[in-house]
Design a protein that fits this description.
Blueprint: E1 5-12, H1 48-51, H2 56-72, E2 79-83, H3 89-101, H4 110-113, H5 119-128, E3 133-137, H6 143-157, E4 162-169, H7 173-181, E5 208-215, E6 224-234, H8 237-250, E7 260-263, H9 273-279, E8 287-290, H10 292-295, H11 303-315, E9 334-341, E10 344-352
Parallel strand pairs: 2-3, 2-4, 7-8, 7-9
Antiparallel strand pairs: 1-5, 1-6, 4-5, 6-10, 9-10
Helix pairs in contact: 2-5, 8-9
Length: 354
């Protein structure tokens, strides 16, 4: 695979992450199991007339894409690739409610058109006037990583391309509650900041959007190099351990060469053993970082890990709120990311300082 550089990145999450000059200095503590993102002033990125017709995921996606492009110095991308686990759930629910309330008659098509998974990518393209390659991947919790892999393949053919890659998911009233009914979301009121100490099943749900501009050539805006990304459909904790060891070996690295590992622990006692098995074995002497006690969990939450990696390289520091062990790296050259959800959709990624 050819070189792939992150030349600009922006993140909207449940924390104040839109200011490029801050790195989790101010933390919002949530007390509920379902909470929304901390929003920027969308009027700075979207015309008010257009914003009235946009769902939350579309607003987050368009704003985050605009921020990422601005920070990379790119006006027009050569491709737009998005990943989402559930798509525009709010408009889907509104359309289905109208079907029921209006006895399947006199339905306007707008909500249906805006309910599809590729709505965000389409709206970003419309706003930019971009007629280039535009595709959306819906691969559960590996949706964002699949989008990155597509961008890597494109860059291996044409390294001079500037590719906008993003991941978006939103909270919606009914479908999110269905996840609560099947046990994916905790029942009780939860002090989310202590989520990683939980001894119950389920996690907390939120929403967010992360966009980044990828290129095959290093620029003065480059924040990190994506060395490799791998996804695994299903595996046991021991199999994942072996897969990560193979992943590192493929790049002539061992655990000793990894300066920090960013893990997707989400407080679900049923599945956090995937992470704990690694934390107590091959990652025991590595600085361990977690983030879902800050932003909650959603299908593309792993994209937040890419943002963390870029901020670490940019600032050369790690906020204490991310640290979950007592090891501190002497330098930050290699950052490994690992995430899974419900024992499936495992993803491994390696970022390097560039």
């Amino acid at each position: 695979m050819s070189d792939c550089f992150i030349n600009g990145i922006a993140c909207i999450s449940a924390q104040p992450t839109t200011d490029p000059d801050t790195f989790l200095e101010d933390i919002i503590s949530y007390q509920e199991s379902i909470f929304r993102s901390h929003d920027p002033n969308y009027k700075e990125y979207i015309k008010p007339a257009a914003m009235r017709r946009m769902s939350k995921s579309v607003k987050m996606g368009v704003a985050a894409a605009s921020m990422a492009l601005n920070r990379s110095g790119v006006e027009m991308p050569d491709a737009i690739i998005t990943g989402t686990g559930m798509g525009c759930k709010q408009d889907s629910e509104k359309f289905l409610e109208n079907v029921l309330h209006n006895d399947e008659q006199f339905l306007t098509p707008t909500l249906f058109i805006q309910s599809t998974h590729n709505t965000v990518g389409g709206q970003v393209a419309l706003g930019l006037g971009c007629k280039a390659y535009n595709v959306t991947y819906v691969q559960g919790a590996a949706s964002f990583e699949t989008s990155v892999m597509d961008a890597q393949l494109m860059l291996s053919e044409e390294p001079n391309r500037k590719i906008l890659v993003g991941g978006i998911d939103e909270v919606a009233k009914n479908s999110t509650l269905l996840h609560k009914l099947d046990g994916q979301i905790k029942e009780d009121t939860t002090d989310v900041i202590n989520l990683l100490d939980s001894d119950t099943s389920g996690t907390v749900a939120s929403e967010g959007a992360t966009f980044m501009v990828l290129g095959g050539e290093k620029t003065d805006k480059s924040l990190a190099k994506i060395v490799d990304v791998e996804t695994i459909s299903a595996a046991t904790p021991d199999e994942i351990k072996k897969d990560i060891e193979k992943f590192m070996k493929r790049h002539k690295l061992s655990a000793d060469d990894i300066d920090a590992v960013v893990l997707g622990n989400n407080g679900d006692v049923t599945y956090d053993n995937y992470y704990k098995n690694l934390q107590s074995s091959i990652f025991s002497n590595i600085e361990q970082l977690c983030y879902k006690h800050l932003i909650g969990d959603y299908h593309v939450a792993s994209s937040f890990g890419f943002w963390i990696g870029c901020k670490i390289f940019e600032t050369d520091q790690v906020p204490a709120i991310l640290k979950v062990n007592n090891v501190t790296a002497n330098k930050y050259e290699n950052v490994l990311l690992y995430n899974q959800y419900l024992g499936k959709n495992h993803s491994i990624a390696l970022l390097q300082r560039c």
